[in-house]
Amino acid sequence: MGKNYLFKIVAGVFFGLMVSCDNSSSDQFEPSANNGGNDGNPAAPARVLEKITLNGTVQEEYTVNGTVFHNGRLRDAGTNNYYTGTVTYINEKIGKIKFLGTLTGSTAYDFSVTVDSKGNVYSGTCTATATDPLNSFVSDYVFTYDATGKKLVKILEKRKVAGNTAYSQFTETTFTYNGENIFKASSAKGTLTATGAPNMATAKLTVYSYQNYDSKVNPFSTLPKAFFTTWSLLRPENFYRLSPNNPTSVFVMPPAPASGVNTPMTYVYDAFNYPVSDKDQALKYTYRNL
Question: Domains in the chain, start-ordered, CATH in brackets?
Answer without folding.
Answer: 3-289 (2.40.160.150)
